[in-house]
Design goal:
The protein is 82% helix and 0% strand. The chain is globular. The longest helix is centred in the first third of the chain and has 28 residues. The two termini are 26 Å apart. It is mainly α. It has one domain.
């Protein structure tokens, strides 16, 4: 349970970083909102990787390979989010907020599984 709560907490920090960075890029540097969103995503990706690797999954050896896997997982999660949300909005009568909540929870669970079983998989120790 501690690991999952850490996963959620780090995700919340990354989301706040994404939002704050995007707003700052628009407000202080006159970036277009679309480009600022990408900048915010990139900043959040770094915050999320640092937090998830160290705090959630206790990895002290996370390097380029793990970062590449993490980035692939993050981008896949975003694509699944967009696809699932669009599908629910188009083909169901769910309220958009309910649909979004379902998608966010589902993608978060899948992302957690991918991170724990692929990105930060710890080799088993032989006793």
């Amino acid at each position: 349970m501690r690991r999952y709560l850490s996963f959620v907490g780090v995700g919340a920090c990354a989301a706040a970083t994404h939002f704050g960075c995007a707003v700052a890029l628009v407000s202080f540097f006159a970036w277009s909102p679309m480009y600022a969103n990408v900048g915010g995503y990139c900043a959040a990706l770094l915050v999320s990787f640092a937090g998830q690797s160290r705090l959630t999954f206790g990895s002290t050896q996370a390097g380029v390979t793990e970062f590449a896997k993490f980035t692939a997982t993050s981008l896949t999660g975003f694509a699944l989010n967009a696809l699932a949300y669009a599908t629910l909005l188009r083909w169901t009568s769910l309220d958009y907020r309910v649909a979004l909540l379902l998608v966010l929870l589902g993608v978060a669970a899948l992302t957690y599984l991918l991170m724990s079983r692929w990105v930060f998989l710890q080799p088993r120790r032989v006793a």
